[in-house]
Records
---
Amino acid sequence: MPAINEPISHLSLSTSKDWREQAGHYRLIGSKCSNCGEMYFPQRWACPKCHSNQLEEYHLKPIGEVITSSIIYGVKEETNPMLQAVIKLQDGPIIAAEIIDANTELEPGSKVEMTLRKTGRNSIGAYLYAYKFRPLGAVSNNCDVQ
């Protein structure tokens, strides 16, 4: 990623590509400790388990299992409810994420898969995306980004 004070002539021709490829924004890129094998998301620079600083980039599988889920409401009751879940990824890390394409809370043990969805636009009008999860095999009316 270019430094903030770097001359504009040295910047990438595609800043959206640079943003898109940052670890953890649109892909589940974490870390794997070369010493003990523990995996983390988001990336870490030191292993909390064995204190090694020998971690390598690791592309986590986009499949997981729900540990628990809950419906969260906005400031006004029953407006814009959002289904959130704590998910154990197939590779081991536990993350929190929004669940989409489900009408009710998911049972513990339910299989889910990661997908990308538009979440809005930034100040210059470019679309913003975020990873979310949905029940494994769910059919969606929304356009997923691959």
---
Amino acid sequence: MSGGRAAETALDASLAALRHRDLSEAELSRRLGERGFDERERDDALATLRRTGLLDDERYAAARAASLAARGAGDALIRHDLERAGVPRELLDAALESLEDELFRARRIVGRRGPGPKTARYLGAKGFANETIETSVTVDSDS
């Protein structure tokens, strides 16, 4: 950080950011850039955090996907969130594959909310696929 806050290193800033919640490598790098750290400083800090296990995109992707799914998100919303966080595609795909099937998650929501157009719109807004919505609402409305 040329001529800036000499007392705070990129590693210090990274540790402070990670204290609040897990971040993807891309998110953390972006934050460090916004704080004025140059590319070399960011790369050094990220390498140290990867080596120590404090920064792990695979862990981040799996935990974030599970958290969003538990809060009722569909696969499209989860995919969008992880893409926005800069998670590499292979880790994003693995995180989605590790989740309970989207149809089962949708059926659980339909079971709580009841079938109908309002629930179908809710599922759509939460990132569920149209096919999943049609199947879950139809199957549950027949039972």
---
Amino acid sequence: MPTYDRPILQTTALTKDYPGVRALDGVDFDLRRAEVHVLFGENGAGKSTLISLLSGAQAPSAGEILFDGRKVQLASVQDARALGVSAVFQEFSLIPTLTVAENLFLGDEPRRLGFLRKGEMRRRAIALLSDLEFDLDPDRPVALLTRAQQQMVEIAKGFRGKLSVLILDEPTASITDKETDRLFALVERIKATGAGIVYITHRMQEIVRIGDRVTVLRDGRKIGTVDARSTPEDELIEMMTGRTISEIYPQIRNRPTDVLLEVEELSSISGVSNASLTVHRGEVVGLAGLVGSGKSELMRAVFGVDRVTAGRICFKGREITRARPGHMLRAGMSYLPPDRKTEGLVLAFSARTNIALPALRSKLKNRLGLLSHAARDALTLKVSQDVGLAERNIGRSVALLSGGNQQKVLFAKGLALETDLYVLDEPTVGVDVGTRSALYRLIKRLCEDGAGVILISSDLPEVLHLSHRLYVMRGGTVAGELRGDQINETSALGLFFDREVRAA
């Protein structure tokens, strides 16, 4: 029988050193049975390092890990799995060329006499997905899934087998409210079995909704552990940042002028069908919808990433239907993709090189047509300051930066050229409250300086608070447009699910 009066998982003075950096410094942490213990902190605070040690992905430099009161050495993820410790990391560990079923059981495939039992694996995958109520085809290659669907596969992997400890690292970053509700129901179900859940999130509403206790980390150190439901939001933010953040969502002045973008009855190979919208200078236009609604696919088609099959696109008064991304970039439209690691950044390059890439052909050449290092350095320093990227990080490889700093580099790339329209697809995915607030202020400045901004987000409060107009996508087309007082949760969800929209 499990002992409920002592932690199921505990650390004492846990420390992790990397060359020149102490990522975790003497952290004491405990997880009780049947609780959701939230880890909260800015990007780079040590949260990901801590869970990598708890899950056996890395070994500590010093300190101890205790499981159910006894000291354990977790030399691998398999060691942790043997104890019932399962982790769902923010960075996916999926093999794109394998199917959903093959990814779910990767490393633990059912075998008989040394031979893989594909039929049995497929049956187990169907049973697992059905139990979780995830609408995924077990035979579909992961490469063909949306990022949100890939997130669901990653979550399903974590729920496989008997669990004593479940670790969830930003599991709702790429899924919408419907999928989030299902995930939280699953967390409650696992919690009821007596398992403990370590949960990392940057979304304050999630802490109150499912958290029991919160441990705040800052600069690799534990700041404190508090009650999740009774601790005020401002206090948590101050513990996290060491300062107060009085306003997360800024008030953005709405002064629309010229029409920048007109999209008329657009269809694409990625499932967009007869979608229309307009965007003016000086406004933030939101795009919201469930997973598979087409909100991301619409702007990927406009930017030229996905092929347009019908319809018309007009940008700054000129028809540019079926233009390629390079042309759109030079014309004054930038697109920040939702997956910064695979589409937005070159991880092996420095932040400086990544930021300068869009401007290499136009702004950074000297009279001989060669790269001007002085011009490059001046440009990257200026836009880095604009997005709040510390100067010490400009020369570092992007792969070594925290998620928040990587997102700042992605924003800085969008500022490298003269830009009239910024398309921001999930711009704050996986970033902390402090960085999120800074990026919102940048959106405010861009809009009030006369640019247009399209904000695509699965975070409904984000689009509700920042948008001057909001388009809701459903089934690959525009289900409706909301303005002014109509931009509220009731109206948006009514369009999400094709229900009658009543005044809030």
---
Amino acid sequence: MSVRTRLDVRGVEPKNRFECIMGAYERLLELESLELTVDHDPKCMYYTLRATQGDEAFSFDYLDDGPETWRVLVQKLHAETAAP
């Protein structure tokens, strides 16, 4: 069974949102998902994950694509491994 965490950041101060969102993603275990609800396109999260985790480490799927509310489902496909 896959665990899904739901996070709605529409009530979070804009300056604190990125840290809140990325913190929630970092706490996911392998194959767990984050359902994120925001009031703008969260493509910055997608690009950050691509740059820091790589394309194969996560999936990023739009559930709602605006114009007032965006929801995405982000699944952590590979757990981070500690450096040797």
